[in-house]
Amino acid sequence: MPRNGFFGVKNAHFAPMTDEDTLTYDVPVPVAGTVEIKMEPSVESATSFADNEVWIDKQQDNGGSGTMSFYDVESTPELRALIAKLVGYQIAEDGRTILSADVTPAPFAFMCEQPGHITGKRRCLYKCQLSKPSLNAKGIEEKPDITQLDYDFSWRVVKLPSGTRTSGYDSYTGLADYEKFFAKVDTAVAPKVVATPAKGAQ
User: Fold this and answer.
1) Residue partners of 102: CB distance under 8 A and separation at least 6
2) pTM attached to this predicted model
């Protein structure tokens, strides 16, 4: 039996949300230099008891949080302007970045890819928010350390036009959307409808 396994991360894309009510987005923008993406889902569980037994088990998906790390998010004016918008900074008339303190970060969809030994995986999270980046810079010693920027981020559950509550979607090598996955954020995702056998059918 063929065995698959995922490794690494690449093809990071950001798609700023243009309307939170209708879930519309700008075209996803690729960001080179992805070092690491950490994602930790936030799921709350609650159990209620009655008649000496479990009455209801309830699980709620609240999205999650994590860290994105990049080497190269400042190489072009366009990329600096995008990241500034997502973290709540501003761009000055002369192109400098103003480390603003009172600007609300813009929500966005985040997309990335994990290559696979056989089948690759691509993921989209619908509603994310970045925090201001952390930076660890030190003097060069025996070998140079390439400075990376670390961004704490969170993602939230949204309600799609289909009525589905979800935080995002995954696609895999061979599926119809895989080759054009990064062309747009797809909000038409809906659960597969499973036919119910007619009453009395064998």
Assistant:
1) none
2) 0.83
